[in-house]
Amino acid sequence: PHDQTWKQLTDHLGEWVTESKKRTTDGHVASYIPELANAPADILGICIMDASGSIAAAGDSNFRFTLQSISKVFTLILSLMDNGEAAVFSKVGMEPTGDDFNSMLKLELVEPGIPFNPLINAGAIAISSLIAGKDSTEQIARILTFFREIADNPSLEINADVYKSESDTAHRNRSLAYFLKDNGVLDCEVDDVLRTYFSHCSIEVNCTDLARMALVLAHNGVDPIRNQRLIPRRFVQIAKTFMFTCGMYNASGEFAMNVGLPAKSGVSGSILSMVPGQYGIGVVSPPLNRKGNSTAGVHLLGKLSQEFDWSLF
Ligand code: GLN
């Protein structure tokens, strides 16, 4: 039996998607990873999943895309599960930067030369190096197994074309990794950690997968559909706190003000968000604003939050 909110959601989601889709013309599809530039600009899809697994979906909800930076939330969780809090926070800090996601600025500022937080590229590269495994091949296999478990989808795979495209053009991420290596943050080789990092960024999903993954976070690490704990509660608390303060990069404050929910964006135009205790949400629309977040996706989440008073405050 579904409540009034769910009925309103399923009744109106289509119109809200149509309205927000007009915002796709305000943004530009990411092109610094050449393969991502092939994504169509006139796409907006959303999937919202409740604790019973019921789905409210609208727009291009079957469109497939790569996780990109959304993967950083789940590699952070896996690295916490592998190493514990103390070890992880000896390699990354806990503060937002106010800079672009791939910024080289401030890398020296947190003692002793560690990245500000695990969701900017530098921090996520440091986190990738902490995933347990004897080499990057084993780390990548463990990441894929973990992501498939959280998404409850054994068919998740790495998109090889996106991986290659990013790897071939990642001059900036390569510089960040060399910088971390020089600061003593990485215990492995730069090429190995980048293989792991590009691989998890290139895992391909759709909005339903995103909503399913978000649902586990919304329920503090318990998958409410299989009624099974997948992640310790404390690590979900850490992940959601970072999503709230740093998940939308240097637009995290604005997003917190206008939407008020934990969220993480990726340059594929994807956003994973949630209504804590209730819904998992996956959104995709490739055109991005100046800060690297989906223009139509952010607009749609703002509309939903206002409509249902979803802000945490
Ligand atoms: N793979 C992308 C990169 O490292 C992820 C960035 C993003 O999604 N914002 O540049």
Automatic annotation (TrEMBL):
<dbReference type="GO" id="GO:0004359">
    <property type="term" value="F:glutaminase activity"/>
</dbReference>
<dbReference type="InterPro" id="IPR012338">
    <property type="entry name" value="Beta-lactam/transpept-like"/>
</dbReference>
<comment type="subunit">
    <text>Homotetramer.</text>
</comment>
<feature type="binding site">
    <location>
        <position position="197"/>
    </location>
    <ligand>
        <name>substrate</name>
    </ligand>
</feature>
<feature type="binding site">
    <location>
        <position position="121"/>
    </location>
    <ligand>
        <name>substrate</name>
    </ligand>
</feature>
<feature type="binding site">
    <location>
        <position position="173"/>
    </location>
    <ligand>
        <name>substrate</name>
    </ligand>
</feature>
<feature type="binding site">
    <location>
        <position position="166"/>
    </location>
    <ligand>
        <name>substrate</name>
    </ligand>
</feature>
<feature type="binding site">
    <location>
        <position position="69"/>
    </location>
    <ligand>
        <name>substrate</name>
    </ligand>
</feature>
<feature type="binding site">
    <location>
        <position position="249"/>
    </location>
    <ligand>
        <name>substrate</name>
    </ligand>
</feature>
<keyword id="KW-0007">Acetylation</keyword>
<protein>
    <recommendedName>
        <fullName>Glutaminase</fullName>
        <ecNumber>3.5.1.2</ecNumber>
    </recommendedName>
</protein>
<dbReference type="InterPro" id="IPR015868">
    <property type="entry name" value="Glutaminase"/>
</dbReference>
<comment type="similarity">
    <text>Belongs to the glutaminase family.</text>
</comment>
<keyword id="KW-0378">Hydrolase</keyword>
<feature type="binding site">
    <location>
        <position position="267"/>
    </location>
    <ligand>
        <name>substrate</name>
    </ligand>
</feature>
<dbReference type="Pfam" id="PF04960">
    <property type="entry name" value="Glutaminase"/>
</dbReference>
